[in-house]
Amino acid sequence: MPQKGVISQVDSRRQQELQKLVRKLGLSDSTPMNWSLLHLALTHPTASARANYQQLEFVGDAVVRLAAAEFLWQAYPESPVGEFAAIRSILVSDRILAEIAQSYGLERYLLMSFSAAGDKAGAQSRLADALEAVLAALYLSTYTLELVRPWLDSHFQQLTEQIRSDPARQNYKAALQEWTQARYKILPEYRVLETSLIHGDVERFSAEVWLHDRCLGNGKGPSIKAAEQAAARNAFMAVRDEPTST
User: Fold this and answer.
1) Of 59, 131, 144, 187, which cross-links 136 as Cys (Cβ 3.0–4.6 Å)?
2) Is residue 106 over pLDDT 90?
3) In this structure, are 131 and 29 located in the same domain?
4) DSSP code of 200?
5) How many domains are there within the chain?
6) Which pLDDT belongs to residue 19?
């Protein structure tokens, strides 16, 4: 069944442009690509109010999370689930997705209005959204990750090694937020106190993370951000295996 808003054909000039992008991804000319979907994935809402990448972006959000989860599970089988969640939250962030999109020059293939192209402040979000839509188009061309992981894994590998070598980059706050949103539809609350006035004290700040009237965890750090991350890590490790609320 045709997807809503998808054009039935892509003109030859546009398809040639899209083929260049596919080659940049390391995929062959014989790739079983749905060119109409890929064209749609690279059509910004300002270029078409009806036929644009918004629905594909929704699908792509799930695709990139699945691709990251599969990669982490296969590459680091001994890692705890908490580490998976913390690392994945970084891998699928807008900042990282935009960087990946930029590495392939994705914006030059994106159809959009002149005003949107000039919106520098919105560039990161625009690139991240477009990449998610492209991932959806690739996935929906085969209903597998065979057109996604061959080129995306190398980015995940490099980034994951960087994150694992610097634990401070692991985003346990995002992982905990994901957990609380999924189960309780609410964000956790952080309460921070400055317990030392000594600059450079590694325990200068103390943080607690609360959900409703329950303290999920606490932690200390040299900065507010570090203390909150420490509290989030302890909280996430404590609650991650709790059953879903009914």
Assistant:
1) 59
2) yes
3) yes
4) T
5) 2
6) 92
Contacts of 140 (CB under 8 A, 6+ apart): 34, 37, 56, 59
Statement to judge: residues 135 and 38 lie in one domain: yes
CB atoms near residue 115 (< 10 Å): 8
In a domain, 83, yes or no: yes
pTM, entire model: 0.71
Active site positions, annotated? 61, 132
Whichever domain contains 23, its CATH number is 1.10.1520.10
Q: Which helix (H) or strand (E) holds 133?
A: helix 123-142
| Domain range for 228 | 172-241
DSSP-based three-state secondary structure for 1: coil
Instruction: Give the pLDDT score at 168.
Output: 56
* Burial status of residue 171 (CB atoms within 10 A of its CB: 0-12, 13-18, 19 or more): buried
Given CA atoms 180, 182, 186, 187 in this order, what sign does their dihedral have? positive
| pLDDT higher than 90, residue 143 | yes
